[in-house]
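Hi L., both proteins are below.
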Amino acid sequence: MLTAILLTLITFVVNSVFLILYFSAIMLDSLSKLTVHIDALKIALPGTILLTIFVFLAPTMPSFMPIGPLSSPIDIGVSAAAVIWIVLTKRYSKTSWLNAILISAAPAIVCLFVILFVHAFLLLLAG
């Protein structure tokens, strides 16, 4: 249980910091001069909170399918967070749906890698 709590907290902090910086850089770059950095916080936080809830509940929830893109609660959390990031990026950046999907694909992939690395690190510490 302690490992799940540590995984959840570390994942939330790392993903939040990364995603806020990522969305700030994307918005500052060229997408929209109307958005401000608080919009990056509004985009990153709801998806990250939802993902963190699914990561925390993953040990207690059963697998839904034996194999596939939605086979575990963490996969469902990442998918739901990606959908939230796409919709909020579209809304706050005022871009097309394709741009919003492309922008939100990178954070979803990086979130999976962060979860994997943090989990492997905690397993090494537990020994």
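That was the first. Here is the second:
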Amino acid sequence: MSTKVHLLVQLSIHEGKIDDFQKIGEEMVALTGNEPGSLAYEWCLSSGRRRCLVVEMYQHDDAVMTHLNGSVVKDLLPKLLQHARIDRLEVFGNPSPNVAALLSGFGAEIFPLWRGLGR
């Protein structure tokens, strides 16, 4: 069974705040790219630039914990949330109870892996 953990975060960007949002988002992407076990961290903007989906994939629980305890979440996420709000946070896979509890504290809904073709 796969140990990968996927996250899908949906954000609504406050009116007139797209430039600030993108600047902080760029910093978050750059820092996440240096985290061990981070496999994907992709930000997608709606055509109206008012909604953003962040697709994250981590190799294992330790990588998720590194991300959640690092400067991206501790320092930059609070700044980002001055310009947007999290509408939805979904977690796919089988995170450990510790990781699941931490993510649930952010309002995450956990979808354990039932079946699939993971590579």
